[in-house]
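Forwarding the complex inputs:
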Amino acid sequence: MKVRDIQEKLQLQLFSGGSGLDNEITGGYVSDLLSDVMGNSDSGEAWVTLQTHKNIMAIASLKELSCIIIVKGFKPEQETIDKSDEDGIPILGSDKSTFEISGELYQLIKK
Amino acid sequence: MKIFRADLHNHTLLSPCGSLENTPRLIIETVKSKGLNIIGITDHNSTMQAPLVKRLGKEAGIFVMCGAEVTTKEEAHCLAFFEDEDTLLEFGDFIYERILNIPNDPNKFGYQVLIDENEDILDQPEKLLISATDLSLDDLEREVHKRNGIFIPAHVDRHTFSLVSQLGFIPFDLNYDALELSKYTTREQFVAQFPYLEQATFIQSSDAHYPEDLAAVYTEFYMKEPTFQEILLALKGVDGRYAKPGGKF
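Prediction (whole assembly, two chains):
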């Protein structure tokens, strides 16, 4: 499954990093502690978080995550957007809560 | 120039998690008996109790840096210090407006008590002071420096409520005046983990919430005199001045 598939099926807004829409999604990781994501996420995972600071892009790049999904209508900061465009890792957004988005994402990915 | 011992991160009884015994008078008496020259007063998201500690400190020959420990929206704790009382209190009002509107329940979180020099209660702020503000890390840094304050991310080695736990690592371009280490680590241990911080200025503080935690560790300042401006110059390493973790008492 590609990032563009979940963007379409979960009706996510695309904030940035559109050149990475064909990144392959291998799983998901849900956490708001960046030290935890850095230590425990795996490459290819879609990351669900409410953090918007530019450090989220540094960690997504380091861990080669497929995309970031920001919940509850929060918007990434401009520097975060710039880094996402540069690195080709899409940042997507939803008004839904972490619980809802993670549940829907799990249903899609587990098939 | 000479060496001064400073412990810049301490809570009074105004912090809900601070002991009711941690009154301005007791703090000053305790740190004086331990041989500190300079202390910081940094209650959670409030600056209101600091001026009284400063006055009592002056009588006892202890220089008090007045500030607060502010919670950013990422829930990273950062110390902010200001030179004059007007700026300090204006910043305190600004922060109080920006913390979430959750009322404090003293039975769950503890009392938040502001007292005067006779230890009579002046106020008990309604909002829970340990809540997060809606300021991002970068917003907070700008707000502190706009007021000519000193900005120090707190206990960066800790696994909770630190810049490192919340945001993974110290952003390379963050404009901080120093980084604070807790009493649970050393500069060597921390820098081994983050070698790019070899050149950074570190302080080390007790983060005392109870009288028995006061003056556990200190920072060594080498400078002309204990003033806000000299401390700032020492943090920047100007003309031979320095600030470095001094170790445990």
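Chain B touches chain A through twelve residues (CB under 8 Å).
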